[in-house]
């Protein structure tokens, strides 16, 4: 074998074992202003240069539409091409804006060609739409959602739209809270997609023992329950994180030390083995705030991002799956319930961005799907990578994702209104007890 071939083989093996790693990025800045190419470039560049880690070169988007336009492709695409950042595309489906989202997607394909499509890790049709339509979502005024039948129509429309284009082989998924996935009324959606996007925030699982020391157990339990209904499809972790500042949620206490512990345990068990888009790089004016660099964009994080024992990563991931059993046992009281609540919580978390207003936006942005299941996830991931080429990579920062997300919504005509509503809802999250009761009921239903 010639050196060239050996190198090529080595590269293909390396990419096969890799997983995408990055952040969530909304279409607006933290102050609500529209994000343009330069803003995305700054975010992607910063993510690639974070001190103490490397490889955060993927970006999850919530909308295909540039803020302030009807259906012009989001400028994050040009930034991603320039920064060689891979993209988990998102189309905002709730609220009736799918046609403009698809128009922007098709326009991006024809405008940028393979320099764009080679960066695409996958396409998420929707974000937490099922959650917003669930009992908990409705009770918490989470905003305009979508029923599974309409969501499936959107998924089919996107498949038709990419057919025959240079994105025809892109994998299609949907991002939602984990309890939306475990709700059997939504199972037809799973049949339509290639991977499940998964959002989970143990910090918000207020009916569980959600102190930081139990966070990984709660997370693993949510993964296991989702895997159980995933039909063998990959789970991509689209959103997770722990706040550095803000109010406590039951036993969940925001702090830099706890955010670091969450990164070191949950994060480091995923990085490199499961496609993961962290929430978030930068979080401005939010409470709680999840930004790992704080409010100001900087390559110096608030805590050491170096994974404790890098060699442990794969192992940990593997344990995720099995962890479930363990978790359940542990939290007999809370754990089962917890999981369910977790899902709902996720939705909330998404909304958390900034004060009430901001929060709404956050919801949108935060929604995402990630491959949790390390095993299967990795494989898919890999495939995705190859198709994308080397490109995947930049992860961006995500703090604004939350807000951005909402903005995204706004930008897209109809989506906009939906988003606003949703956000508002987020702000008015139901009281813990009510929420808890719903969660508990859900947990029971699941258990049965
Ligand atoms: C389960 O999903 C269906 C369809 O999305 C939804 O109408 C229902 O409210 C969900 N159930 C719960 C308990 O949220
Ligand atoms: C990490 O490495 C240190 C030093 O070798 C060891 O003491 C510790 O147990 C390891 N931690 C894990 C989680 O493997
Ligand atoms: C929310 O943000 C708006 C706009 O920045 C501000 O006027 C308002 O006081 C904030 N509300 C809270 C509760 O922080």
TrEMBL record:
GO BP terms, alphabetized: cell wall organization; polysaccharide catabolic process
Signal peptide: 1-18
Uppermost EC category: hydrolase
InterPro entries on file: Beta-glucan_modifiers, GH, Glyco_hydro_17
Region (Disordered): 311-348, 377-422
Transmembrane segments: none
Keywords: Carbohydrate metabolism, Cell membrane, Cell wall, Cell wall biogenesis/degradation, Glycoprotein, GPI-anchor, Hydrolase, Lipoprotein, Membrane, Polysaccharide degradation, Secreted, Signal
Record's compositionally biased regions (Low complexity): 311-344
Membrane protein topology class: Lipid-anchor; GPI-anchor
An example molecular function term from Gene Ontology annotations: glucan endo-1,3-beta-D-glucosidase activity
EC number: 3.2.1.39
Source organism superkingdom: Eukaryota
GO cellular component: cell surface; extracellular region; fungal-type cell wall; plasma membrane; side of membrane
Chemical reaction(s) catalysed: Hydrolysis of (1->3)-beta-D-glucosidic linkages in (1->3)-beta-D-glucans
Main location: membrane
Subcellular location: Cell membrane; Secreted, Cell wall
One Pfam family linked to the record: Glyco_hydro_17
The protein's role, per its UniProt record: Glucanases play a role in cell expansion during growth, in cell-cell fusion during mating, and in spore release during sporulation. This enzyme may be involved in beta-glucan degradation and also function biosynthetically as a transglycosylase.
Similarity section: Belongs to the glycosyl hydrolase 17 family.
Name this protein carries in UniProt: Probable glucan endo-1,3-beta-glucosidase eglC
Organism: Penicillium frequentans
Organism lineage: Eukaryota, Fungi, Dikarya, Ascomycota, Pezizomycotina
């Amino acid at each position: 074998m010639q050196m060239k071939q050996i190198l090529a083989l080595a590269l293909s093996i390396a990419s096969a074992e890799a997983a995408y790693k990055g952040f969530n990025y909304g279409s607006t800045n933290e102050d609500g202003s529209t994000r343009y190419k330069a803003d995305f470039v700054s975010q992607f560049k910063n993510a690639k240069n974070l001190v103490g880690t490397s490889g955060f070169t993927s970006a999850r988007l919530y909308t295909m539409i540039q803020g302030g336009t009807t259906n012009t492709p989001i400028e994050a695409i040009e930034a991603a091409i320039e920064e060689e950042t891979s993209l988990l595309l998102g189309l905002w489906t709730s609220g009736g804006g799918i046609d403009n989202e698809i128009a922007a997607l098709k326009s991006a394909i024809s405008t940028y060609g393979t320099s764009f499509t080679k960066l695409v890790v996958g396409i998420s049709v929707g974000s937490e739409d099922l959650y917003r339509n669930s009992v908990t979502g409705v009770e918490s005024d989470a905003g305009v959602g979508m029923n599974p039948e309409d969501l499936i129509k959107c998924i089919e429309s996107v498949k038709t739209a990419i057919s025959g284009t240079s994105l025809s082989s892109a994998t299609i998924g949907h991002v939602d809270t984990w309890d939306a996935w475990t709700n059997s009324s939504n199972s037809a959606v799973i049949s339509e997609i290639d991977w499940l996007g998964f959002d989970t925030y143990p910090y918000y699982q207020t009916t569980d023992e959600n102190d930081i020391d139990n966070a990984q157990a709660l997370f693993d339990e949510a993964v296991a329950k989702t895997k159980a209904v995933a039909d063998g499809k990959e789970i991509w972790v689209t959103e997770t994180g722990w706040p550095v500042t803000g109010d406590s949620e039951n036993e969940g206490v925001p702090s830099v030390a706890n955010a670091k512990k969450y990164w070191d345990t949950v994060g480091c068990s995923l990085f490199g083995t499961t496609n993961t888009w962290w929430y978030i790089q930068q979080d401005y004016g939010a409470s709680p705030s999840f930004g790992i660099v704080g409010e100001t964009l900087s390559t110096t994080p608030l805590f050491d991002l170096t994974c404790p024992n890098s060699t442990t990563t794969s192992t940990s991931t593997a344990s995720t799956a099995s962890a479930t059993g363990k978790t359940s046992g542990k939290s007999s009281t809370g754990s089962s319930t917890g999981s369910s609540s977790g899902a709902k919580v996720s939705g909330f978390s998404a909304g958390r961005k900034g004060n009430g207003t901001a929060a709404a936006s956050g919801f949108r942005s935060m929604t995402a799907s990630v491959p949790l299941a390390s095993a299967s996830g990795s494989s898919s991931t890999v495939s995705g990578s190859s198709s994308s080429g080397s490109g995947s990579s930049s992860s961006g920062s995500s703090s604004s994702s939350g807000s951005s997300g909402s903005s995204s919504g706004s930008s897209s005509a109809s989506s906009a209104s939906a988003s606003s509503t949703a956000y508002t809802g987020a702000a008015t999250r139901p009281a813990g007890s009510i929420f808890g009761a719903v969660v508990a009921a859900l947990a029971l239903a699941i258990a049965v």
